[in-house]
Specification:
This protein has eight helices and four strands. The protein has 281 residues and is mostly helical. It is globular. Helices cover 68% and strands 4% of the residues. The strands form two sheets. A two-stranded antiparallel sheet has the order 1-2. A two-stranded parallel sheet has the order 3-4. It has one domain. The termini are far apart.
């Protein structure tokens, strides 16, 4: 195929995508909506179900109702959602990565997440039936507060990397300044620490919006990652000036995110026959 033929087929392909992507999005959303449990929290459960173990004993509850994500994942994806909103207003199109100095606290957040998660998993193994794993050592007894705080730190770290990476991938002209600086990091940590303290009150007035926001955080992170992947596959990196120009890549990213969530939901439900946590016994 010569250059002239390639140019002539490009508009036809773009027109085809303009029809195909909305139809695929509608089908993906309909399929996910059909298989997900009823109600707003039920839909949030279906999102959390794809990325979290959802063990009841390790989750916050609104009365008798478990939140869509465990305490650690609630902290992680709630903090990631808040951080992305914060960056959208405070950093705009800034695309610079944190660098080594600012990267140090982010690495500490990651290490704390891994350490507490590993210790918590070892403690979980000790709860298994029988005596074979009873003597596994633990650094400390895990608890919901540490899960929430270390998850929140991980959420800040994820958003701090993903936001500038998105700007680097999308915009034709972006600001090379760093999206994160010390003042913004301090503000983010302060905001999310206050939110975490409110979560620990176990007030339904706090937990209900947190349940929705954390599930939306999962969907948003997946959509951003798949949108960036779509742009790279379609070779459309650095082709946009405004968000409104990106409706098709965003819709493609959302469609891929819903397909992934639906596939994991179906596989996990087939294996466990429950929308609850992973069985321990």
């Amino acid at each position: 195929m010569n250059a002239m033929e390639q140019v002539s087929t490009q508009p036809k392909f773009q027109n085809l995508l303009r029809w195909f992507i909305p139809i695929a999005a509608l089908l993906a959303f309909s399929a996910w909506f059909f298989i997900a449990p009823p109600g707003l929290l039920g839909k949030a459960d279906a999102i959390g179900y794809a990325v979290c173990h959802r063990i009841s004993e390790r989750s916050f509850h609104i009365g008798d109702r478990q939140l869509p994500l465990c305490a650690r994942c609630t902290g992680e994806f709630n903090a990631a959602a808040i951080s992305l909103i914060f960056f959208a207003f405070a950093s705009g199109k800034k695309s610079g990565m944190p660098g080594w100095k600012l990267g140090a606290p982010l690495i500490l957040f990651f290490l704390a997440f891994g350490l507490d998660g590993s210790n918590s998993y070892l403690y979980l193994l000790k709860q298994a039936p029988g005596d074979a794993l009873k003597n596994i050592p633990n650094l400390y007894i895990p608890n919901a507060t540490l899960r929430l705080l270390t998850g929140s730190g991980m959420g800040i770290a994820l958003a701090s990397i993903l936001f500038p990476a998105f700007n680097q991938t999308v915009w034709r002209t972006s600001n090379p300044e760093r999206a994160l600086d010390w003042k913004k990091l301090a503000a983010l940590v302060g905001i999310i620490l206050v939110v975490d303290l409110l979560i620990l009150t176990d007030s339904p007035l706090i937990l209900y919006p947190v349940a929705i926001l954390s599930a939306l955080g999962v969907l948003t992170l997946l959509t951003i990652v798949f949108t960036m992947t779509w742009l790279m596959i379609m070779r459309q990196e650095n082709a946009f000036h405004q968000l409104k120009e990106m409706w098709m890549p965003f819709l493609a990213g959302l469609t891929l995110a819903l397909l992934m969530i639906s596939a994991i939901d179906l596989l996990r439900f087939t294996l466990t026959e429950t929308w609850g946590g992973i069985p321990l016994g």
